[in-house]
Structures are given as C-alpha cells and as structure tokens.
Write a structure and sequence with these properties.
The complex is a heterodimer of chains A (131) and B (121).
Chain A: H1 21-47, H2 54-65, H3 68-95, H4 103-126
Helix pairs in contact in A: 1-3, 3-4
Chain B: H1 13-39, H2 47-54, H3 57-84, H4 89-117
Helix pairs in contact in B: 1-3, 3-4
The chains are: A mainly alpha (131), B mainly alpha (121).
C-alpha cells in the first residue's frame, strides 16, 4: 500500500544523475514557468508600443517578425508553453489522485507530445516574409 | 500509493488559486497561440487587426482576464519556487512585496495597453 522513497531533495541539482522522472518533471515545470513569466513581462513591454500610436505598434511587431532569430525564439516559446500546459494537466491529474501509478509515463508522454507539436509548428512559424 | 509532494501548504488559498488559474490558462493560452500564430500569422499583425479583435467585448474581457490570471499564476509560481529554494524571514517578506508591486504594475500597464488597443485611450 503506502511506500515512501527517500530520493533526497530536488533542489540539490548536483545529484541530477539520480533524479527520477517526477523530479525532472518538477525541474522542467519550474524552468518553463520562469521562461513564461519572463516572457509575460517582455510581451506587455513590446505591446506597450500601442500607447505610442498605430504606426509604431505595427512597425515594431512587423519589424520583430521580420527577424529570423525572433521566429526561432517563437518556436522555443511554443515548446516551453506546450510542455508547461501538458505537464500542468498532468499535475492537475496528480493533485486529483488520478493515474498516480503512471505519473512517470505521463511525463514521458508530455515530452514526446511537446516535441511532436513543436516540430509540426516549425513551418508555420518560419513561413511568411522575413527581412 | 505514491507520497504526496507539493510546493504548497495543503488546502491553502494560494494552492487553490494556482490550480484554478491553471485550468483557465490551459484553454486561453492555447487559444491565444492558435489565433495569433496559426489562424492569423504573427508577421501579418497590424494595429487595425488588433483593434478589431479588442473592440469585441468578449475578446477584450478574455484577454484582460488572461493578463490577470497569467500574472497571478506566474508571480505566485516564482514566489513558490523561491520559497522552495529556502528563502525565509526578511528575505521572504521582501520578495513577497517586490512581487506584489511588480504584479500590480504589470496589470496596470497591461490594462492601459488593452485600452489603447480598443481605442479607448
């Protein structure tokens, strides 16, 4: 029935080779969360050009979108967001006590699905006019 | 049964709000990405297109709620991650208030941006 495992603390990153799937899920969820919250502040900063008028807003957004590096960063952002969403659903399931015995498999499924969605999105993100 | 691991105090209000905002954000974040990268290509975005979307009350309300819930979920997550790393006492109080102020500023600025986008400002 109840079984406990002493895997040490996940905050002790130096012993990453010993980490289980759940610990990796925890680390990736934190990492993707930091990226997303950082992006949220950046996103509002960029959209603030709307306060400077229609032309400034349109030129800023289209100017950024004309850069190839921005397109690649968007693919990265999608990967981060998709993983955070899928692992977030997995966490909600864990919190509700659903499928606890398969929590490692659902982490691997989140990773595979994130990879597949990211790869499938590349043509859309890289399409359209570039500078 | 596995042991219960959580970053939160069980049954706490922040725990519940983090989950409730997560459920909302799962749908809205996916919608936001699909609409502005797949249905409309980001490279084709213009102020006129943004204004047309933001002039719809339902879209405006959804985007404003997106801003508020994402800010809460993100900043609460950051606070939580720092508490996990072991901050306490004065450090914890200072981090809390810096994050509260940052959140309020972000929501205020985001609201100004939303009002500029729908032509109110």
């Amino acid at each position: 029935m109840s079984q406990s495992y002493n895997r040490g603390t996940v905050e002790d990153f130096g012993r990453w080779r010993e980490f289980s799937a759940g610990m990796w899920a925890w680390i990736f969820h934190k990492f993707t969360g930091w990226v997303l919250v950082g992006y949220l502040f950046t996103h509002i900063a960029v959209l603030s050009t709307s306060l400077g008028g229609a032309e400034l807003y349109t030129n800023t957004l289209q100017g950024l979108e004309a850069l190839l590096v921005v397109r690649f960063l968007e693919v990265g952002l999608l990967a981060v967001a998709v993983f955070h969403i899928l692992n977030g659903v997995r966490l909600l399931m864990v919190d509700l006590g659903v499928g606890l015995e398969a929590q490692d498999k659902s982490f691997y499924a989140s990773m595979v699905l994130t990879g597949a969605i990211t790869v499938a999105s590349i043509p859309t993100f890289l399409g359209g006019p570039l500078a | 049964m596995a042991e219960h691991y959580s970053s939160f105090e069980r049954g706490g209000r922040r725990w519940l709000l983090q989950r409730l905002t997560a459920v909302f954000l799962i749908g809205v974040l996916a919608f936001h990405f699909l609409l502005l990268h797949f249905a409309n290509h980001a490279a084709d975005i213009t102020f006129a297109g943004t204004q047309a979307r933001m002039s719809q009350v339902g879209y405006f309300a959804t985007m404003w709620l997106f801003l508020v819930t994402a800010t809460f979920h993100g900043v609460n997550g950051v606070y939580n991650a720092l508490v996990n790393q072991g901050i306490e006492g004065t450090q914890k109080t200072a981090v809390k208030w810096v994050l509260v102020v940052a959140s309020l500023l972000l929501v205020a600025q985001g609201t100004r941006v939303a009002l500029a986008m729908n032509g109110f400002l």
